[in-house]
Amino acid sequence: MTTSPDRTRIEFPGISSRAWEHPADRAALVTLRTLKGFDTIVRTLSGLLQERQHRLMYLATSIRVDERQFPDLHDLLRDCVEILGAEETPELFILQSPAVNSFTIGMDKPFIVVTTGLLDVMNYEEQRFVIGHELGHALSGHAVYRTILLHLMRLAGTIGWVPVGGWALRAIIAGLMEWQRKSELSGDRAGLLCSQDVHTALRVQMKLAGRSRVSEIDPDAFLAQAAEYDASGDLRDGVLKLLNIELLSHPFSVLRAAELKRWVDDGEYARVLRGEYPHRSTDDDARIGDEFRNAAKTYKQNFDQSDDPLIRVLRDVGSGLGDAVGAVGHGVGEVAADIKERFSHWRRGSGD
Known about the structure:
Blueprint: H1 23-32, H2 36-48, H3 50-61, E1 63-64, H4 71-83, E2 92-95, E3 102-105, E4 111-115, H5 116-121, H6 124-140, H7 142-159, H8 166-195, H9 198-210, H10 219-231, H11 235-245, H12 253-265, H13 268-273, H14 288-305, H15 309-317, H16 320-328, H17 331-349
Parallel strand pairs: 2-4
Antiparallel strand pairs: 1-2, 3-4
C-alpha cells in the first residue's frame, strides 16, 4: 500500500460534529449538550485549575507546534481545521515519548498532544489522519462531556440518585467505557474526513497493531481477522471477548479498522463527501429521541449480523431478544437523559 500524494481535499463548511459521531456516542452527546448550566460550571472550573496546570506542564516539557517548530505538522493541523470548519485552531504539542500515542485534553480550550513515538512510526499522510482524529474529539467536546458525566455520576452517588454499590457501579462504569470506545470510532471517522484516503486510514490501524512493520501486513488479511474474531470459538470465547474489552478505553485496532471500513461501505462517508451532512446551525434542533432510536438501530443491526458464538446462542433463545438488544442502544444516552432530568429537578429545588 502506498501513500496517496498530497492533493486538494473537500472542505465541509459549517459541518456539525454529528456528521462523524457514532450513533451511540451521538445519542449521549446530544443529551448532555442540553446541560447548559452544568456545562458552563465544569468548563469554568477546568479552565481555572486542572486544564491550566496541564497546559503549563506541556508548555514546559514539550514542543509547541507552529510555523517555526514542526512546520509540516502545523500545516497539517491548519488543513484539518479548514476541512472540518473549526472555528478555532487548538494548540498542538509534541511530547518526547517512545509510546505510539496521541490524545486531546482540556475543556475550555482543548489542545492536542502527539508523541515522538507516533511521529517515528506514521508517515505524513498517516499523521494527517491522527491529527484529524484528535481534532474530531475536540470539536465533539468529548473531554467536556466525559468530565460532566463523571461529575454527575459522582453527584448521583452522593445524594442517592442511583445505587453505587457492587454490580450497579460496575454497570455504570461499563456504560461509560462503552461510550468512550464509541467516541474513538467517532474520532476515526473525523480522521478519515480530514485524510480522505481510506487506505491511509486503515494503514494507521495496521501500524497501531504492527508498528513500522506494515510492509509485512496485508490489508485484506488484516480486515479478515476482524471477521474471524467475531465468528471464532464457542460460547466461552464469546464471554471472554466481553471480559477482554470491558474496561478498555479504545477498541482493538483490528476492530477499529473494520468499523471504519463498514462506515465507508454503508455509504455514510460518501454522503458527507457529497455535502449531505448536518450543520452546526441545526445542533440545537437535534432530537434526543431520534438519536436514541438511531443508536438502538445500530446496536440491533450489529446484533442481527454478528457471527459471535455468544450472540448466536442469544439469538436462538427467541426472536424477541433482538428488540431487547435494540433497547440497549439507548445505553449511556438514556442514563444521561435520566441524570439530566434529575439535575434539573435538583436545580429547581435549590432555587437556582
